[in-house]
Amino acid sequence: MTNAELPLIRIESLSKQYKMGGETVHALDEVSLTVRHGDFVAIIGPSGSGKSTLMNVVGCLDTASSGSYWLDGEEVSRLRENKLAEIRNRKIGFIFQGFNLLSKLTAYENVELPLIYRGVPPKQRREQVMEALRKVGLEDRVNHRPVELSGGQQQRVAIARALAGNPPMLLADEPTGALDTKTGKEVMGLIRELNEAGHTIVLITHDLEISKQAKRVVRIQDGRLSEEEGRTA
């Protein structure tokens, strides 16, 4: 099988324990999950459900206590931090609730930054940055800094930054949490369009209405997963 034929994400019997006050907390309890290329999966759960822990493991920001995690054909469960950082940079585009844009940089420079870290040559960087900004409808805002953009435009820049370099997965953490209802709907519409264009999206949320935008809904409660029906069209 080629990597394209394999699941993008394959998690098997994955657990994560923490020590708190002398007690062992099971943040993730024998979790298994498969996400295929082109999928759109929402992981929903309340505070304390294990949702953030699962996001950190899926995003290679943390490692599990036991079990296995394959990302794009590569076993990443036991990698050291420097290797995980390389994986994050090459294979995951992050979309954060708080945008996480650098205030002194323009929209163009914010989108360009991860490509610089990746060692992409200047000409290729420019092509990829402009393509990403075009996809989110901000090619006319390349020289604007975050303070000169609305909240919705800032999140679009953050989405463009995640798209730059075309990583296999977009990982969105409460992407509408800092936006008003109307702007949130516009951003979710954009995320759906990106999925329909072929991008694989894993979305973390506590909002049932937001989760319904996904093709698949996976609920997490007490560190365990159960799958529910997502949208049909």
UniProtKB/TrEMBL annotation:
<keyword id="KW-0547">Nucleotide-binding</keyword>
<dbReference type="Pfam" id="PF00005">
    <property type="entry name" value="ABC_tran"/>
</dbReference>
<dbReference type="GO" id="GO:0098796">
    <property type="term" value="C:membrane protein complex"/>
</dbReference>
<dbReference type="GO" id="GO:0005524">
    <property type="term" value="F:ATP binding"/>
</dbReference>
<dbReference type="InterPro" id="IPR017911">
    <property type="entry name" value="MacB-like_ATP-bd"/>
</dbReference>
<dbReference type="GO" id="GO:0022857">
    <property type="term" value="F:transmembrane transporter activity"/>
</dbReference>
<dbReference type="GO" id="GO:0016887">
    <property type="term" value="F:ATP hydrolysis activity"/>
</dbReference>
<keyword id="KW-0067">ATP-binding</keyword>
<dbReference type="InterPro" id="IPR003593">
    <property type="entry name" value="AAA+_ATPase"/>
</dbReference>
<protein>
    <submittedName>
        <fullName>ABC transporter ATP-binding protein</fullName>
    </submittedName>
</protein>
<dbReference type="InterPro" id="IPR017871">
    <property type="entry name" value="ABC_transporter-like_CS"/>
</dbReference>
<dbReference type="InterPro" id="IPR003439">
    <property type="entry name" value="ABC_transporter-like_ATP-bd"/>
</dbReference>
<keyword id="KW-0813">Transport</keyword>
<dbReference type="InterPro" id="IPR015854">
    <property type="entry name" value="ABC_transpr_LolD-like"/>
</dbReference>
<dbReference type="InterPro" id="IPR027417">
    <property type="entry name" value="P-loop_NTPase"/>
</dbReference>
<dbReference type="GO" id="GO:0005886">
    <property type="term" value="C:plasma membrane"/>
</dbReference>
<feature type="domain" description="ABC transporter">
    <location>
        <begin position="9"/>
        <end position="233"/>
    </location>
</feature>
